Amino acid sequence: MIRRGRKEGWFKNPITTFRPWAEFNGTKFDGIRIGPLRGLESRGSCVIATRDLSHEDDIPLVVVPNDLILSLEGVQLQAKSDKRLHELLEALGHFGKTTRGAVLTFLLLQATIACPDIPTGTGVQSPLTEYVKFLPEEMLPTFWSEEERELLIGTTLKPAVEAKLQSLQREFGMLKETTQAIEWCAKYWWDDEEGFVTFDDWKQVDAMYRSRALEFPGIGDAMVPCVDMANHAAGAATMALYESDNSGNGILLLREEKMVKEGNEITITYGDEKGACEMLFSYGFLETSMNTASVMFLDVKIPEDDPLKAAKMAISNSAPGIRIFDKGESTDWESDFMWLICINEEDGLEFDVMQTTDGDREIRASWKGTELLDPSKIRELLQADPMWDVYRLRATAIVQDRVEAQLRLLFASEDFITDSLSNNNGRITQNIASLAGKLRRLETELLERAYGELEDQKIAIANSDVVKSYLEFISQGTTVLDEDFS
User: What's the CA gap between 243 and 67, in Å, rounded?
Assistant: First the structure.
């Protein structure tokens, strides 16, 4: 984490000392070890079978005591005996009460305690102080250089990384503003000459949390030492699952009907439903076997000439975008937000400004006289409407236009990407160039498939009797609000 002497590398524990540390602190191992696979040391540490394992054995491969689990509850418990941690969480207000805020702040404090150039007494040593020293420096896209991030032009990852960096900057600014009044923080974190904490440190604790936090039943999002050393494999390649036992301990178990030979890796899934963009964003890699982007989120905006734009934005409770996903044989899309875009006042959407009981004013929406209590459910109302095919055609056309716009971004940037890679003079690493190139290819292929299928859908919907009748009325300048197109 925090650099020694501000110039040297991070202070780290060798992975060979991980198991002694874990066992000393109550972790139980059965049939596994932590370390690199022979011949694949560059992949880092993973969970490896030390004997032939079978699900029929019905025993946990590892049991991590709950006091080693880094969760919101764990941080709050630690703060009761650590004055410095309590000071930090209180200074951070609401952010310090969230899981993310509490865990990131805790990690930063542990790195401070572990730094040999900072005097002892900056916090209470705990087993997790040593745990931080085992965590590798995560090279997620938030650490890519500006030139490397330019390789992402046209992909859905580029705006995601830019938004994340802006969010991290705001958090870091808030962290400094709220804690610089704390004497030891002012000296060891923020002092121009003696301070150690930089924006890179905040990015690093964020990367540690994002890439290692798992959702445990009964615990929530948490970092669980040892379990978080297991690598990802999707589908049938997933060997093990993680959960919590009746005592709140974290455990790792082989999945049903799974067997692992001695010396082979034991994998878990980070989420089979995650697309290429999210895998690269959160974990910094793409599986070699990944042959589809799987899912993409394209942002979408309500047109500026929509007279109801402000009101629609005010009531919307859905993400302003479209989710394009691969169904194997075909593609599909979903978006609650889209259905608000494709209807207007002439269709039956109305807005009123109402005064609440406490004197505030709020916007309420209605659809053909019925109050729209949940805007995300508008699709269900539209499906039951005789004009459903018309709304569906509008939505399909808008989605296709957005897919086409994204494809244009990808195609238009190809020459720039080629020139950047040809003239980068070593500023772009081969690994990052390869990851960015694969993401571009996977997203392009998914978008091209989606575009073609949306075109087919448009043609099919346009041939429905309802749409034909609607277009005929429009061409004649006839009002359609009261017509029955069923």
Answer: 15
At 485, the pLDDT band (50, 70, 90 cuts) reads very low
State how beta strands 240-244 and 250-254 pair. Answer: antiparallel
Contact 176, 105 (CB under 8 A): no
Q: Whole-angstrom Cα distance, residue 30 to residue 408?
A: 53
State the first-to-last Cα distance of the chain, in angstroms, to the nearest integer: 65
Q: What is the DSSP string of 25-48?
A: TT-EESSEEEEPPTT-GGG--EEE
What is the extent of the structural domain holding 467?
Answer: 291-475
Query: How many alpha carbons fall within 13 Å on the CB side of residue 39?
Result: 3
d(C-alpha 190, C-alpha 202), whole Å = 13
Whether 300 and 260 map to the same domain: the answer is no
CA 440 from chain center: how many Å? 19
Strand order in the sheet with 32-35: 32-35, 46-49, 265-266
For 219, the 3-state DSSP assignment is coil
**Is residue 135 a contact partner of residue 237, using CB atoms and an 8 Å limit?**
no
**Count: domains in the chain:** 2
Residues 171 and 303 in one domain: no
Whether residues 61 and 203 share a domain: the answer is: yes
pTM score = 0.90
Same domain? For 188 and 56 the reply is: yes
What is the bridge-based pairing of β-strands 62-64 and 214-216?
unpaired
* Each residue's pLDDT tens digit, 322-355: 999 999 999 999 999 999 999 999 999 999 987 6
Q: Return d(Cα 289, Cα 330) in angstroms, integer.
A: 20
Nearest to 280 by CA among 144, 413, 409: 144
Mean pLDDT for 447-473 is: 94
- The CATH number given to whatever domain includes residue 365 is 3.90.1420
Residue 465 within any structural domain of the chain? yes
Task: Give me the residue label for tokens 């392009």.
Answer: 444
Average pLDDT over residues 426-455: 95
Instruction: Give yes or no for a contact between 138 and 207, defined as CB atoms under 8 angstroms apart.
Output: yes
- Is 110 among the domain residues? yes
The 10 Å Cβ neighbour count of residue 353 is 9
Residue whose structure tokens are 């002439």: 346
Q: Which two tokens stand for residue 323?
A: 């989710």
What does each C-alpha distance from 314 to 110, 319, 336 come to in angstroms? 42, 13, 15
Residues 452 and 317 in one domain: yes
The mean pLDDT of 63-86, rounded to a whole number, is 95
Domain match, 12 and 65 both: yes
259 and 324 inside one domain: no
d(CA 378, CA 372): 8
Strand partners, 63: 28, 251
- φ/ψ of 57, rounded to 5, equals -65, -30
DSSP structural state of residue 343? -
Q: Are residues 230 and 368 in the same domain?
A: no
By the 10 Å C-beta count (0-12 exposed, 13-18 middle, 19+ buried), 363 is classed as middle
